[in-house]
From TrEMBL:
GO MF: NAD(P)H dehydrogenase (quinone) activity
Higher taxonomy: Bacteria, Bacillati, Actinomycetota, Actinomycetes, Micromonosporales
Domain of life from the UniProt record: Bacteria
Protein name: SDR family oxidoreductase
InterPro entries found in the cross-reference section: NAD(P)-bd_dom (IPR016040), NAD(P)-bd_dom_sf (IPR036291), NmrA-type_oxidoreductase (IPR052718)
EC number(s) stated in the UniProt entry for this protein: 1.6.5.2
Organism for this UniProt entry: Phytohabitans maris
Amino acid sequence: MTVAVTAASGHLGRLTVRALLDRGVPAGDIVAGARSPEKIADLAALGVLVREADYDRPETLAGAFAGVDRLLLISGNAVGTRVPGHTNAVNAAVAAGVSLIAYTSASYADTSDLPVAPEHKATEEVILASGVPFTFLRNCWYVENYTANLAAALRHGAILGAAGDGKVSAATRADFAAAAAAVLVGEGHDNKVYELGGDQPFTLTELAAEVSRQSGTEVVYRDLSQEEYARALVAAGLPDGYAHVLAGSDVSLKEGKLLVETGDLSRLIGRPTTPLTESVAAALARLAS
């Protein structure tokens, strides 16, 4: 059985390929697709089949998916313009005879008012209409969305947001990658929807307290209005549109839209999800190295 992972040069894609190898899948049975294959030359060196796969260039997708049995379609990163590219990938998968499309979606994509949800809902609908068996991996937030910014938090003594006391069921990319790998090589996942999140949801106030405890530097959570937070993100260098998506997502978090308590993630990976304490410790260790 040949399995394929798109966007393999990204964090989640690369981790999923590694998770497949860790599960004992032969490298020659793994296709790693990327817009720029040269960026995953290290995977090719391991024997993984590296192929060009650009959602916006359908002519690359037929070759990328040739001979593939199961496909992990990782959502693109061009927020707001992703559905046409995803549709190209689904159409190519159908033409290639793929027997399962697993898609990395968003929490409660079919009912949520999360700013990124409409694109994921639309992509899920495209997959459903294709008739190909599917698995929707509705990933909650990556904990790295927070831990990647700890340098600034330590420098300023604050984590900014508009999330109030809302809890987020964030998990590590590695945990989500392990779940994707489990679906690609396992059985019984056809036409299933998994709401995936960490076992221990936390507020941003709790995140700040954990960073303070481990670093010895006082860090507080500063709650802003949605518009204030968007302006702060723009001032930090983010594009205006993306800043408003993030600020709107924080409001959804505040309203409980990113609280996932299904236990699906830990069941798929066969262990508890990585606790926040470990994620913060790893991030601080990277800063210190």
